[in-house]
Amino acid sequence: MAVIVPGEVVRISPLVRRVTAPNPGMMTGPGTNTYVVGTQALALIDPGPEDDAHLKAMLAAAGGRLRWILCTHTHVDHSPGARALKAATGAEVIGMHAPPHGNQDAGFAPDRAFGHGDALDGGDFTLRAVHTPGHASNHLCYLLEEEKLLFTGDHIMQGSTVVINPPDGDMAAYLDSLEALLALDIAHIAPGHGHLLDKPHAEARRLIAHRLQRERKVIDAFAANNPATLDELLPIVYSDTPQRLHPVARRSLHAHLLKLEREGRVWQQGERWKLRS
User: Fold this and answer.
1) Which one of 66, 154, 236, 245 has the lowest number of neighbouring Cβ atoms within 10 Å?
2) Tens-place pLDDT, residues 167-192
3) Domain presence at residue 212
4) Collapsing DSSP states into helix, strand and coil, what is residue 230?
5) How would you label 229-260 residue by residue, b for 16+ Cβ within 10 Å and e otherwise?
């Protein structure tokens, strides 16, 4: 598999090119993928962070034909680049408004707010929004109908699972959103981080199974302590995860517990959680 190089324009289909932002890291993998869609008037999905080098790369890829800037969600590695790109091109910004909490791009101001099922007619392409809350409450995937290609932002990433970070992140909503993808006619996934995925339904099922298996580990972990704090549960539930990632995994553990609490399977007592017998 080819290495993803920031700033390099890569054609991934007849209608789509990818250029990746220079923000690699533990949470972003090789960097945030920006996708340019169309052959005449162009749309761009996820302009990434505010970065001069990435702005130049996006402008070089889109030229003077950029008409629309779409954001999957308003985490700071996906949407802040929209401001400078709009200033440089006059393109219309599309997405959902930022929620009031979490690691959000609070200044994101879409010219057009999209919801589930809304579509952009680009002439030679159609992008249809699929609301997929879970990783973020305002997360949208975009389905390129002509190629059955789904741009998944952080809903599905290549090579890793996404963090579900309460209060905006919601594990139950995330699982429901993965289930919803199984009803879509899609052939490929273009993720916000990493390479193209060619078995979208199998990947959604794998992620559902993984999260439910992790939930089972949460329940089993109470055998050692009941009640238990998050920090007592963490090394048991994520025993298969490198310790350096435990601070991030702690957020998803909290999301699992909140889901179980809503289902009446655990309850919270101060800083401790108790499994119902």
Assistant:
1) 245
2) 999 999 999 999 999 999 999 999 99
3) no
4) helix
5) eeebbbebbbeeeeeeeeeebbebbbbbbbbb
Task: Give the CATH number of the domain where residue 95 resides.
Answer: 3.60.15.10
User: In this structure, are 189 and 229 located in the same domain?
Assistant: no
Residue numbers of the domain that contains 251: 222-275
> CA nearest 126: which of 145, 139, 141, 110?
145
Mean pLDDT confidence for 203-225: 97
Q: Where are the beta strands (DSSP E) in the chain?
A: 10-13, 16-20, 33-37, 42-45, 66-70, 92-95, 112-113, 119-121, 126-131, 140-144, 149-153, 188-191, 228-229, 266-269, 272-275
- Count of helix runs (H) and strand runs (E) in the chain: 6, 15
Mean pLDDT to the nearest integer, 40-53: 97
- Angle of helix 171-181 relative to helix 246-262, nearest 10 degrees, comes to 90
pLDDT category of residue 24 using cuts at 50, 70 and 90? very high
The answer to whether the beta carbons of residues 95 and 72 sit under 8 Å apart is: yes
Amino acid at 19: V
Q: Are residues 197 and 253 in the same domain?
A: no
Confidence of residue 1 (pLDDT cuts 50, 70, 90): low
Instruction: Based on the fold, state whether residues 85 and 49 are members of the same structural domain.
Output: yes
Q: How far apart are CA 34 and CA 46, in angstroms?
A: 5
Instruction: Identify the CATH number of the domain in which residue 241 sits.
Output: 1.10.10.10
Q: Which two tokens stand for residue 28?
A: 């972003």
Q: What is the CA radius of gyration of the chain?
A: 19
**Is residue 70 domain-shared with residue 21, that is, in the same domain?**
yes
pLDDT for the residue numbered 59:
97
Please determine, for residue 38, whether its predicted confidence score (pLDDT) is greater than 80: yes
CB 79 within 8 A of CB 47: yes
